[in-house]
Amino acid sequence: MVSVLQNVAIDCADPYELARFWSEVTGCPVHPEDGPGDEETRVMLREGPILHFNKVPEPKAVKNRVHLCLRPDSTRDEEVDRLLHLGATLVADLREPDGTGWTILADPEGNEFCVLRSASDRAGTAPHP
């Protein structure tokens, strides 16, 4: 017997607004039955588990023990710029001069996540449109 990963739960103050941010990040929809003011909101990823946002009363206080790592289909640097424009904040820039490394960002409620190098970054080629 095994267990199947159903969702990744993210505690937050405003589930719908945070789900909207992550919907933009992933290009995947917020569940059509979820809306402003809901205690729980979901982003329906194309593959894998659902992103499940839960309303909690306390604010985030310390570094995440579990975080999401994103591998963009554009370059890492283009994706970092896009996510900053969507409302993410820079936590740590661990990019190296040789192109390796990653960037740690935080979503609008302070949850950290990483942006890794894309396949084209790792291959040393430009992404295909």
From TrEMBL:
This protein's name: VOC family protein
Pfam families noted in UniProt: Glyoxalase_6
PANTHER family in the record: CONSERVED PROTEIN, HYPOTHETICAL FUSION PROTEIN
Domain VOC intervals: 3-118
Domain of life according to the entry: Bacteria
CDD domains, per database record: VOC
InterPro entries: Glyas_Bleomycin-R_OHBP_Dase, Glyoxalase_6, VOC_core
